[in-house]
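Feature request disguised as a bug report, sorry. It would help if multi-protein outputs had a clear separator. Right now it looks like this:
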Amino acid sequence: STVTQFLQSFKLMNDNENGALRKFYNVIMDNGGEVLTDISNLGEITILAPSNDAWAAKSVENNLGNREKVRSILNMHIIKGKLNVAQIHQKNAKMIAQVPTVNDRTFLYFNIRNENGEDVITVEGGGVNATVLQADVAQTNGYVHIIDKVLGIPYTTVLEKLETDPMMSDTFKLGQFSDFNNQLNNTKRRFTYFVPRDKAWQKTKLDYPSTHKKLFMEDFSYHSRSILERHLVIADKVYTMNDLVAMTAESGDSVLLPTYRDSLKVKVEEEAGHLHDDSGLIEWTGYVITWNFKKINVYRPDVECTNGIIHVIDYPMLEERDVVVNGG
């Protein structure tokens, strides 16, 4: 059967009849059924389908009444083209795989880790990390992967997201040295955190080997904290990438954002063709931050959390002179 026919097969099922995706199908139909029509028209397709239990989460149920929001969430679970586990492995050979969805300018990020000799595949979308429960449910025109959470409805704080996301482990580790991370669980504040991904810190190891080595030693926690404070904006609102682009355009130059001790001066712009897929044939618009005359690519914009937003960046806002130790 096709992916559409496979989903329609759950129409009359209940949980006792192994209707694993019954609620997913019902949400589509309760929202008018247009998403199912889109799926039928896409040809080759891959669906990340949340299980019945995933839809029962309180945070998810609170959003089901918003038709526009639900449509956006459903589209975040749809990928054009066939994507099976073998291809996810291939994409993860050198880095965490980034895959565009049919939801405009929204991407999924696949990661593979080994637990007790078995591969566990996780996928991140819209601030939510989900685990693939059943992969490669093959249909004539694509694949369905059953996941344990609904993507796009955040349920973690900035700290919890930082701690659980495999792409942000080095930044989390640096924050632990100086207790910098503790504040990120505060739900009464709104954080905008520019988080260097692990690969970003690896780049500094090549550019500033001595500085990188010191940063990842607990004895230099004062320096690492000062650098992280530069990346954390604390205000009464969060700043999406679109917000920052608009503010930059309005000012005609850089904008000042309030940080823990001082302010962060950045210019944020969009660049066409800034991001591309592994083949290099498909390009899309991305964001670039200019800080201290350096251009820093935004790898993952607008990762939502319950108390803020994270922008994953490709290089830290770091200078070699940030870690200077006087001899004695």
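(second protein starts here, but nothing in the output says so)
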Amino acid sequence: ITAAADAWARGAAALPKPWQPQKPVLPVEGMRNVLITSALPYVNNVPHLGNIIGCVLSADTFARYCRLRNWNTLYVCGTDEYGTATETKAVEEGLTPQEICNKYNAIHADIYRWFDISFDYFGRTTTPYQTTIAQDIFQRLLARGFLLQDTVEQLRCEDCQRFLADRFVEGTCPFCSYEEARGDQCDKCGKLINAVELKNPQCKLCRAVPVVKPTQHLFLDLPKLEERLEPWLEQSWATGDWTANARYITRSWIRDGLKPRCITRDLKWGTPVPLDGFRDKVFYVWFDAPIGYLSITANYTDQWERWWKNPQQ
């Protein structure tokens, strides 16, 4: 308190001069370097106050605090644009998925500008860098034996000639008999659903009755990582600043044993899978989207690895 009163008495002239980072903002030797990202807002809607509060406001406040502290700060964000929800929105509006992304990315950017959110860069995930980095990570996983193939029973619409992603199927919930349940979740009882469990399923696009057929997919072999993950988590829990909720959820996953996780989908709109036998598929958005933080930084600066692969700073 005495130090604060003394600094206040000396006035603004005694404060350190504000740090003016170079452009683009890159890590600087000897400084505290802070990279801030907001959770990438999904592109298929118009942001409202809840999105602003839940997605970008806290990160913006922290970015402003860091700059006031004269820390070398980079704050990036962008729209998450691949996946089924974009395809569904495109069908609703009679546009292509790319046109939907272009339309709503511009709306998002305008709204955040109006709110004066202090991004150093606001990008998007539908870029060549996203494809390059996601496919590179995939190839590294493949080369190290962390992927496996398996057959999945999936609904296929013979009229549309396509396997149906979860959101392209509607039917009766097997738990509560709600007649408009989606292929991934029932909005009435809230339970998760495997699309093949739906009663009276219908293709959302043409209303035909789909059939169950086998299809090959790629899985991230998470059980192989368990042995290395557990000691890392113990160290991170001891030295990091995890919330009680994050610790509880992570512990429950480890306790129950990690399961292989499917990383491909029978869709057109997404990052292509660069492997023979799977080139008609794309990466599942939850494999692909987190890589958006890296690719958006790469679109900001070609020296993006100095932020993302630089643990010394």
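Even a blank line would do. Unrelated, but nice: The two ends are 31 Å apart (CA to CA).
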